[in-house]
Amino acid sequence: MVMILDTTLRDGEQTPGVSLSPHEKLEIAIKLDELGVDIIEAGSAITSKGEREGIKAITSQGLRAEICSFARAMIVD
Fold this sequence. Notes:
There is one protein chain. The chain has 77 residues and is of the alpha/beta class. It has one domain. Helix content is 32%, strand content 10%. The chain is built from two helices and three strands, in the order βαβαβ. The protein has helices at residues 22-35, 49-59; strands at residues 5-6, 39-41, 66-68. It has a three-stranded parallel sheet with strand order 1-2-3, covered by helices on one side. It is globular and about 35 Å long.
């Protein structure tokens, strides 16, 4: 079985000049879910309050896709 994991909401935001609001991340996550993406990496919760707000908004939508967050192997994460 092949599963699709999309990192647009975290890795895509590494592009210079790209900064997504929590609402924009939610809209993208909904579209990714509609496209049939299996796992959506919603961001890195340790990054900022806005990042955590976006992740919470996405996880509260009841999407079919599994939602994950990037974390380092550090206690603070």
